[in-house]
Amino acid sequence: MSAQGFARESLAVLQHVIESARDDVAAAADLVAECVRAEGVVQAFGTGHSQALVLELAGRAGGLVPTNRLSIADLVLYGGEDPAVLDDPLLERRAGVAARLYELAAPNPQDLFVVISNSGVNNVIVEMALHAREHGHRVLAVTSLAHTRAVPAAHPSGRKLADIADVVLDNAAPRGDSLLELPGGGSVCALSTLTGVMLVQMTVAEAAGRLLAAGERPPVYVSANVPGGFEGNLELEKKYAGRIRRTAS
Questions:
Q1: What are the residue boundaries of the SIS domain, all occurrences included (predicted)?
Q2: Counting beta carbons within 10 angstroms of the beta carbon of residue 35, is it exposed (0 to 12), middle (13 to 18) or buried (19 or more)?
Q3: Is the overall model pTM greater than 0.85, yes or no?
Q4: Percent of the chain having pLDDT more than 70?
Q5: Which of 9, 112, 180, 186 sits in a 20 to 30 Å window from 77, CA-based?
């Protein structure tokens, strides 16, 4: 149990992900490139720590401009709900939440939904994926197949995120996410963020490559902390006015 032990084991899993997810990343990149080419927006959604990967996709330097972060907090920020609604730690399990978030986002038909959840079973996650599919959107999932296969479905449909998505990126995290076993039971050091970031950025790189190969320049953010970056980003965002949200974070 040490820093070097975690580094060694997590790097081994990362290498496995890089090699084993090649075809899935290619399929995911096809979805992203197709969405951008059709002037769609990548709608990214996750709860809990999966929001780290949503931030990795939406609105960051080196990332694609036509990306939008969906969050349960949108119920308050855009939906007029009392902030006290966010005090409920089980809000993500409440029926109807995803449908309301979808309504507030008002996505276009060509938008792609990227739904992120390590377990892939929480009600709001499954509901969002189902709602997107019912409205004709393609769905890309980032999840742990090991975890989702080891736990029962929670949604009334009996389905899990991986059952609904067009393409699944497996983050290879173990059941429960933590990597290092503790003596006497339990484990420490979550893995899914590390592997998830790798999968997301590999997908962005492949999608950008596809756009370049088609003679199109990928609409990509420059850091706002370099001269002209903020102004240049505002110019790129004009094409997607009213469709992408950029709030303080």
A1: 32-218
A2: buried
A3: yes
A4: 99
A5: 112
Which residues neighbour 24 within 8 Å (Cβ) at sequence distance 6 or greater?
A: 167, 168, 169, 170
Q: What is the DSSP string of the chain?
A: --HHHHHHHHHHHHHHHHHHTHHHHHHHHHHHHHHHHTT--EEEEE-GGGHHHHHHHSS-TTSBSSEEEE-TTHHHHTT---GGGGG-TTGGGSTTHHHHHHHHH---TTPEEEEE-SSS--HHHHHHHHHHHHTT--EEEEE-HHHHHHS---STT---HHHH-SEEEE--PPTTSEEEEPTTS-EEEE-HHHHHHHHHHHHHHHHHHHHHHTT----BPPPTTSTTHHHHHHHHHGGGTTTS-----
Nearest-angstrom CA–CA distance, 23 and 108? 28
- Beta strands 187-190 and 178-181 are antiparallel
Cβ atoms within 10 Å of 10's Cβ, excluding its own:
17
pLDDT at 234: 86
Token output for 93: 């399990």
CB 118 within 8 A of CB 191: no
Residue with the two structure tokens 């059941």: 175
Tens digits of per-residue pLDDT, 206-248?
Answer: 999 999 999 999 999 998 888 888 888 888 888 998 899 887 7
Highest-scoring range by mean pLDDT, 119-123, 139-143, 212-216, 237-241: 139-143
Position 70 scores a pLDDT of 95
| CATH architecture of the domain with range 3-239 | 3-Layer(aba) Sandwich (3.40)
